[in-house]
TrEMBL record:
<keyword id="KW-0547">Nucleotide-binding</keyword>
<comment type="similarity">
    <text>Belongs to the shikimate kinase family.</text>
</comment>
<feature type="binding site">
    <location>
        <position position="33"/>
    </location>
    <ligand>
        <name>substrate</name>
    </ligand>
</feature>
<keyword id="KW-0808">Transferase</keyword>
<dbReference type="GO" id="GO:0008652">
    <property type="term" value="P:amino acid biosynthetic process"/>
</dbReference>
<keyword id="KW-0460">Magnesium</keyword>
<feature type="binding site">
    <location>
        <position position="116"/>
    </location>
    <ligand>
        <name>ATP</name>
    </ligand>
</feature>
<dbReference type="GO" id="GO:0004765">
    <property type="term" value="F:shikimate kinase activity"/>
</dbReference>
<dbReference type="GO" id="GO:0005524">
    <property type="term" value="F:ATP binding"/>
</dbReference>
<comment type="function">
    <text>Catalyzes the specific phosphorylation of the 3-hydroxyl group of shikimic acid using ATP as a cosubstrate.</text>
</comment>
<keyword id="KW-0418">Kinase</keyword>
<keyword id="KW-0479">Metal-binding</keyword>
<dbReference type="InterPro" id="IPR000623">
    <property type="entry name" value="Shikimate_kinase/TSH1"/>
</dbReference>
<keyword id="KW-0067">ATP-binding</keyword>
<dbReference type="GO" id="GO:0009423">
    <property type="term" value="P:chorismate biosynthetic process"/>
</dbReference>
<comment type="subunit">
    <text>Monomer.</text>
</comment>
<feature type="binding site">
    <location>
        <position position="133"/>
    </location>
    <ligand>
        <name>substrate</name>
    </ligand>
</feature>
Amino acid sequence: MNNIVLVGMPGAGKSTVGVVLAKVIGYQFIDSDLLIQQREKKLLKDIIAEQGLDKFIQIEEDVNCSIDCQQCVIATGGSVVYGEKAMEHLRSIATIVYIKLSMSTLKKRLGDIKKRGVVLRKNQSFEELYMERCPLYEKYAHVVADAEGYNVEELMFVIKEKLKL
Ligand SMILES: Nc1ncnc2c1ncn2[C@@H]1O[C@H](COP(=O)(O)OP(=O)(O)O)[C@@H](O)[C@H]1O
Ligand SMILES: O=C(O)C1=C[C@@H](OP(=O)(O)O)[C@@H](O)[C@H](O)C1
Ligand SMILES: [Mg+2]
């Protein structure tokens, strides 16, 4: 199907590098988060605040399962890996690229994570979230792109090289 799906922690740069990569390789660009907002007619942070984490994860899984495209770069939301069906679907239509970044860089980039509308359980720390998520990104990824120290353009080239594009 020739699609590329970007997964990774919130703040890893999936949405930013995704659109740049799509432009350079001549693909379409989809951001799953925008599809969710469009479908629900609400901001992500409001869906999470009003409907709760589990409902958000369900909505996110439905939206990602419904993606049907060719020659697309798809930036997912960081919590997509909680939806097993969605990940199976995405793995069947795309090469999954995990954009990997250290906990310390992510913390610096994100600032106060609670203001960002992340799927973070009550009393769960960012460190705990990182430790919970990383094995899931590794599990579903076909390719890992180490993003440490790279600006957007450099990271785009790292991904392009990894995918031999
Ligand atoms: N390679 C990069 N180097 C430094 N900052 C970046 C890089 N990629 C993205 N950013 C910044 O990090 C923040 C999160 O980027 P974003 O693309 O929204 O991440 P994600 O979609 O993975 O949550 C934004 O402020 C963005 O400008
Ligand atoms: O990791 C998460 O829990 C989330 C990440 C967000 O997307 P980004 O990864 O693009 O920031 C968005 O899907 C939602 O707010 C939840
Ligand atoms: Mg994003």
